[in-house]
Design a protein that fits this description.
Helix content: 10-25%
Structural class: mainly beta
Number of helices: 4
Mean pLDDT: 80
Oligomer: single chain
Distance between the termini: 33 Å
Strand content: over 45%
Largest sheet: 15 strands, mixed
């Protein structure tokens, strides 16, 4: 099943931590991809960027940040660090090779925001897709260049709170018809434990439904018009580009804490409390505030 463009990524973006496994020295099939995302808020600040390498199997997701902002993250304490999530036992692990240490937590409750996220395009939402012809080759694949225009509004519900987000966006897409990364996203959703929530996550009225082209957008540039508190419109530009994509055998030691590392096991921490629930709701409200202009 193929989920709506962008929503698996939106849900996965809410994940904060990831888990140990046993080192077997065997080979497993894994999806691997490196993606760079840059956001230019058009507010006079230097554009922010994030590049990361993600590897996904049926059981694990491994995420390593390569660059954050202007920092190349081989910075001393962060060099080689990565996050793991183990879908079998619901544990998350932060692995720090520079310190030969790792910390383990239970992250089952951390996905409450993702599971409760629902979006619904309001009636009158307009979405059009134009084929602009052949695009430039990217990472060795031919692409077709498209422009997606969206105007209207969307209701966003998170942890029982709903707000309305105005949508005024133009997205340019360079789609490679011979590349399909959706199985990697679907595998990650299963590992994270919210795959069953995705089919009902988005409600699209007939006028807003589109048949997207086959393949994967190796580059996308989204220009969104936002209105600030003074009533001034400005355009925020988000650029996402894949630097590599593969589906191949890898050593399963990539998804384990290396032998000899000191492990801080936090899974025996105090049981979930009312304050933990309040913290989850507060975090969800912060996310909602960022997603909508006028949260209710």
């Amino acid at each position: 099943m193929r989920y709506p463009r962008g929503f698996v990524a939106t849900a996965c973006f809410l994940i904060a931590v990831a888990s140990p496994g046993d080192v077997h020295g065997q080979s497993v099939m894994a999806w691997s991809y490196t993606q760079k995302i840059t956001i230019d808020s058009a507010n006079g600040h230097i554009p922010s960027s994030l590049s990361s390498r993600v590897q996904v199997t049926d059981r694990f997701v491994r995420r390593q940040t390569l660059e954050f902002g202007s920092l190349k993250v081989p910075a001393d304490r962060l060099k080689g660090s990565y996050l793991l999530f183990d879908g079998t036992d619901g544990t998350g692990t932060s692995v720090m090779p520079s310190q030969r240490a790792a910390s383990v937590v239970t992250v089952g409750s951390a996905f409450a925001e993702s599971r409760s996220l629902q979006m619904a395009y309001q009636p009158g939402m307009q979405r059009t897709l134009d084929d602009l012809g052949a695009g430039e080759p990217l990472i060795g694949h031919a692409t077709e260049h498209y422009r997606l225009t969206e105007q209207g509004s969307m209701d966003v519900t998170l942890l029982g709170k709903t707000c309305t987000r105005r949508i005024d966006a133009v997205t340019e897409l360079w789609i490679a018809p011979d590349v399909d990364i959706h199985p990697a996203f679907e595998a990650a959703a299963k590992v994270y434990g919210f795959a069953d929530a995705l089919p009902g996550m988005v409600a699209t009225p007939p006028g807003a439904q589109l048949s997207m082209p086959k393949g994967t957008a190796l580059r996308s540039i989204v220009r969104t018009t936002n209105t600030d508190s003074s009533g001034t419109d400005h355009v925020v530009t988000l650029t996402a580009e894949y630097l590599e994509i593969s589906h191949s055998l890898v050593d399963d030691s990539l998804f384990a804490v290396p032998a000899g590392y000191r492990i801080l096991d936090l899974r025996t921490a105090a049981p979930r409390s009312t304050s933990t629930d309040s913290s989850t709701k507060a975090r969800g409200l912060q996310i909602l505030n960022r997603m909508c202009e006028n949260p209710g």
